[in-house]
Design goal:
- The chain is mainly alpha-helical.
- It is rod-shaped, with a radius of gyration of 35 Å.
- Helices cover 58% and strands 0% of the residues.
- Helix 6 packs across helix 13.
């Protein structure tokens, strides 16, 4: 595999830059070259999901992207040294799918996904290219790997890539690779220190690396990964929105936004904690909510039983009413008889 990795590693030497320009990435594309920080390996993007050409800048510095891959080499963390990073890069080829939307800075999305994968598309990815600082948010998502869609705040940007998300979904097949990369992420994780250079992604690397465990969502949930590995059915969203995954996590109906509801994304973040829902029980959450209503129904039935009981009480009343009516009739008869008796007595007296 080393040879293949090498291909992926075309930028291995650059890796150093991967984390080097961490701060610049914030520029959000301003410094195309800086993008290197992003690790935007434009060409590399294919690799691990570097936002296509400018994933970072949203497309500014295609060449710089190499940097991202460069980090991969730093991924020597894998322990094997540069060759090992190739492992990560290995996934890179599959990531290409992920990067399919590379040019589409929907890439952002792509980057977003990559970020989850690479765990590096720090700040920029999120920004989609606009808010350099926001990118960190995406980074934040990195920490919430699960989120890949978690980035509640970021989702907005992510949402921007709503159209691209499809791409992200396209990556769903890649996610499988991503999942396999899950082991590689570990290497990436070690690269975590390097990511530090990346800057914010330091923790994110965990994502990349820690994602090993998380990979279930990111990669393991190959089937679910369709979206990002999250809301299998709703994945379109980003794979976050629980019940409404479509949304990005929160604005289920807004899902198209993919995260338009930045505030709502918080929910997505919540989903992060509920990771199970995040990707696994995405649809289930709805059920959960539905069940919640159903219990109400059950409770309602509870009142119904009361009604039933009431009915039981009413029936005796009906019988009593019947009896009363009968008594009434009898009384009427008695009255009639009484009258007749009176008449007879009168007649008798007259006779006498």
């Amino acid at each position: 595999m080393p040879t293949t990795p090498t291909t992926q590693r075309t930028t291995p030497t650059t890796p150093t830059s991967q984390g080097t320009a961490g701060t610049i990435p914030a520029t959000q594309g301003t410094a195309a070259t800086t993008l290197t920080t992003q690790g935007t390996a434009a060409t590399a993007p294919t690799t691990k999901g570097t936002a296509a050409t400018n994933p970072r800048t949203k497309g500014t510095a295609a060449t710089t992207p190499k940097t991202q891959e460069a980090t991969v080499t730093s991924a020597t963390t894998h322990g094997v040294a540069t060759p090992t990073p190739t492992t990560q890069e290995t996934t890179a080829t599959s990531p290409t799918t992920q990067r399919t939307a590379a040019t589409t800075p929907t890439t952002q999305e792509t980057a977003a996904k990559t970020q989850t994968t690479q765990g590096r598309a720090y700040t920029t990815p999120t920004t989609q290219g606009t808010a350099a600082t926001t990118p960190k948010t995406h980074e934040t998502t990195a920490t919430s790997p699960t989120t890949q869609g978690t980035a509640a705040t970021t989702p907005t940007t992510q949402g921007t890539d709503a159209t691209t998300p499809t791409t992200q979904e396209t990556d769903s097949t890649t996610p499988t690779t991503q999942g396999p990369v899950s082991t590689t992420p570990t290497t990436q994780g070690p690269v975590a220190t390097t990511p530090t250079t990346k800057g914010t992604a330091a923790t994110t690397p965990t994502k990349q690396g820690t994602a090993s465990t998380t990979p279930t969502t990111q990669g393991t949930a190959a089937a679910t990964p369709t979206r990002q590995g999250t809301a299998a059915t709703t994945p379109t969203t980003q794979g976050t929105a629980f019940t409404i995954p479509t949304t990005q996590g929160t604005a289920a109906r807004t899902p198209t936004t993919q995260g338009t509801a930045a505030t709502t994304p918080s929910t997505q973040t919540t989903a992060a904690t509920s990771r199970t829902t995040q990707g696994t029980a995405a649809t289930t959450p709805k059920k959960q909510g539905t069940d919640a209503m159903t219990p109400t129904t059950q409770g309602t039935a509870s009142t119904t039983p009361t009604t039933q009981g009431t009915v039981l009480q009413l029936q005796p009343d009906k019988e009593r009413l019947l009896q009363l009516q009968q008594h009434k009739e009898q009384l009427l008869q008695f009255k009639q008889h009484k009258r007749q008796l009176l008449e007879l007595q009168q007649n008798k007296e007259q006779m006498l």
